Each structure stands twice: as structure tokens, then as C-alpha cells.
Amino acid sequence: MRNGSILLLTLLLITLSGTLAALELFGIALETANRDELRAAVKAAGLVLVREGGDDHWFDVYDSSTALDGSTRFYLGFVKLNQVFAFAEYEFVGLDRRRLVRDLTLKYGAAEIRRGRFLSDQSHRWQRDGIRIELGGDWHNYKTRLTYFSPQNMSKLQAERSVAAKPQDAAEPSISFY
Questions:
Q1: Contact (Cβ atoms closer than 8 angstroms) between residue 44 and residue 67
Q2: Measuring CA to CA, how many Å separate 170 from each of 3, 159, 166, 174?
Q3: Is residue 7 part of a domain?
Q4: What is the mean pLDDT of the chain?
Q5: Nearest partner of 75 among 66, 93, 63, judged by Cα
């Protein structure tokens, strides 16, 4: 009976800690995170930088294989205008999500299950402190993706990308070497 009580108390504390504390990755509250503090925390956690975002890239890419079992890559994106957190995404090879669903449910509670076109297309969604957490499959690439994102900041990042992708104004001279 004592072991059962300890297990129940541990699960209760895990549940309460997930609801009372701000949602964090690498010890940084995502809702208020900025680029410099998240980059430092990610590197301190042992993730290896593959490519840092900047003028030409909208997100950082890290090798996460030593940080989270089964993951291969970690992507970290920011709104360029004010350098605030927009998204973080772990990439896993394969589509078996059962362990991740179990672990995330223990941490964040029951997920909203979003049905896809097929049964295997379903994804799981949690919402904490203004941050959305989604776990789903990327069938085209045979990968599973665990994404944390701020819907408001993600919209800003997408707007920035749209502006950057627009062709140059016709009044501006363009240079072509072809």
C-alpha cells in the first residue's frame, strides 16, 4: 500500500507541477522566452548546433540525439522583429508515437485528439500557458514531430516569411546575370 501511495503522490505532483508552473523547455519559460536565452539553454543542454538561423534562415537546427531519446533534430524558431520564441520542434525517425503520447499525457494531462483523414493521421494536442503542444506524424518523411509553439508568435513569423518571399517591387532595379 505504501508504494502505491508514493506512486499516486508522485503522479499528482507531476500533474500539479505541469499546471502551476510555466511551460518550460531547457529551464526557460516559453511564453516569455527570447532568442539569446533559449539558444544558450539549448546549447547548455548538450544539443549540437547544425545551423544557426539568421538573415537567410528562419530557424536554428540542432542535433538532438543526445538530449531526447529517439530524436534526431531539434528546430528552434523566433520572430525576427523582436527575437521572441515562435516554435520548437523535435523530429523523430519513425511513426510510433505511443511512448511519447504516454509521457506527454503524464506531464500535461489528457490530450485533445485530432482525427485525420485516416486513423493513423490522428494527432495529439495540449495547450499550456499560451503555448500549443502538438504531436503528430509526417507521413511523407516517415517522421514523428513534437512541436511547441506560440500561436500568436508563429503567425508573426509566418507573416515575416510571406513578406520576405514577395517578389521585389517593380520600381526597384533588379540585377540578373543570365
A1: no
A2: 73, 21, 11, 8
A3: yes
A4: 83
A5: 63
Q: pTM for this structure? A: 0.79
Instruction: Give the three cell numbers for residue 157.
Output: 513569423
Length of the chain: 178
Rounded Cα distance between 147 and 124, Å, is 11
Q: How many domains does the chain have?
A: 1
Is 174 inside any structural domain?
A: no
The 3-state DSSP class for residue 38 equals helix
Residue 178 lies in a domain: no
For residue 153, the enclosing domain spans: 2-164
**Helix spans in 21-110 (H):** 35-44, 98-108
pLDDT category of residue 54 using cuts at 50, 70 and 90: confident
- For residue 43, the domain's CATH number is 3.40.1000
Q: Does the residue 169 lie in any domain? A: no
